Amino acid sequence: MNALSKLIAVEAKLFLREPVSLFFVFALPLGLMLVFGLPQRGASGADAGQHGELTFLPALALALTIGMLALFTLPMALGIYRERRVLRRLATTPVNPALLLVAQVVVNLVMGVAGAVVTAIGVRFLLDQPAPANVPAFVLAFLLGVACLFAVGLLIAALAPSARAAQSIGPALFFPLLFLAGAWLPRDQMPTVLARIGDYSPLGATVDTLAAAWAGDSPAWPQLLALAVTAVVGSVLATRFFRWE
């Protein structure tokens, strides 16, 4: 077993020991869908379209999972490692400290995929709705959403001076993004400028592209492009400003 696989195994064990993180990945999305989706169980027609409640809810639940992993878990873990000088100590060993960042991203990505699978199964059997109809587009939208939000999370980890700061910056960014995604107020009821910003925000674009693929439609290419551009820009900036100690 090489150094990276060992680090991934250790990080996975640490993640699984955190009940709060597991709640974010598995319990919260299912709870959200059951609370708001059970009254519409078995609905069809308009409710099942791209903008229907039974496609918007699972898309929002998935975006919620990815967003919490990216903006809560990832920056806080890396901030703690920097504060405790774990990264600096790794630099004195044959293990490259950058491998710890890779291991963190891999573990959070795997957990996000697991959360997506559980959500899809919950939609199918608990809400009596079909699984994503356009699977290739759904996978593309999911991966771009993960890349975009994880890049933002890594940028927070790079810029935050401490773990406490990362713990504050993540939620301070997450909840406005959740609002722009239409979690509390549908975007068609927002002012035009605000709704347009929401369409291309990280969570808004992720929700829309996932919902479109779930309903069997093709996601809007401008939104996919916005996710890809944000992922590239965020990754470049995170690499530029990341501090090991």
UniProtKB/TrEMBL annotation:
A GO-annotated cellular component: ATP-binding cassette (ABC) transporter complex
Domain ABC transmembrane type-2: 20-245
Membrane topology annotation: Multi-pass membrane protein
Molecular-function GO term, any one: ABC-type transporter activity
Main location: membrane
InterPro entries: ABC-2_transporter, ABC2_TM, ABC2_TM_bact-type, ABC_2_transport
Coiled-coil stretches noted in the UniProt entry, renumbered to this chain: none
Keyword Membrane tagged: yes
Family: Belongs to the ABC-2 integral membrane protein family.
Name by which UniProt lists this protein: Transport permease protein
Gene source species: Micromonospora haikouensis
